[in-house]
Amino acid sequence: MKKSALEREHESLLDQVKQIADGLGQTFAPFCEVVVHDLRDPGHAILAIHNNLSGRAVGDPATELGLARIADEDYPQLLTNYPNQFGDGRRAKSTSVGIKDSSGRYVAALCLNVDLNLFRGIQNVLEQFCTASGAGVKESLDPANAEAIRERIDQYAMSLSTTPQALKTEHRRALMQELKQAGFLEVRKSMEIIAAHLGVSRATVYNDAK
Questions:
Q1: Fewest beta carbons within 10 Å, which of 10, 50, 78, 179?
Q2: For the chain, what are the domain ranges?
Q3: What are phi and psi of 128, to 5 degrees?
């Protein structure tokens, strides 16, 4: 039986969404589950699932959110970073993108579910690693006022909506004048500190300061 133009459109949309899901799944493996829902068949909506964290399978039914989109074409198309939970109680952060056809009807959804437990474990390890003990011992491996120089550079870069490493030559030169006027160039090893934070050579910093 010959397929209608709308059916061909739906198949094309779903094929593209599946490719996007595959790419996202490979990029954000293993901590992000990526799911494609075919909202035309709510009873067997899951069309593809990558980095399976929820224990679901292809052919499983649509979620409450999917059913809400099916029932209401005005339901939000984009829902980002909302709290969620896997079946075993693990906390998740989810994003859902509704896919509409040319008539405005929801056909599919692309959903991302991030396992927050994994990140909390990494966070705990980093916090433990970064915790310094040895009360009463005072030593600094950083020259005095070095952090103040870095903060001033960061603030300058933020005012231009960029990063210190991405500053253009004219911006670096203007920055060096600001640092000079504020007395930061008198700090011991200031040029080395600035060069390291900007990701350029000391020769470049000396030239920018002229």
A1: 78
A2: 5-119, 146-209
A3: -65, -40
